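Each record in this resource describes a single protein on a pair of labelled lines. With that in mind, the following record should read easily:

===
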Amino acid sequence: MPKSIVLPENSKLTTEIINELDNLLNFSPPDAIRKSILKVYLQYIICEHEALPNDFEGVACDFYMLIDFFTRAEEEMR
């Protein structure tokens, strides 16, 4: 039986986005995705260690949000 999800009126999520997210989580567990994101982020920091780019704070926030999302997704899927 299909599940219904009620989104806020101003949500940017669409059915297609939700389907793609479901495909992603079926392909790889959230913990594995989170670990991959951390590896990429740490490699980015190592490569840029001499002079971080001007937008580093924004990049760091984006990575933090992704890591936090997959941590919460993993908890919800247990």
Notes: The chain has a mean pLDDT of 90. Residues 33 and 39 are 10 Å apart (CA to CA). The first helix runs from residue 15 to 27. Residues 29-77 form one domain.
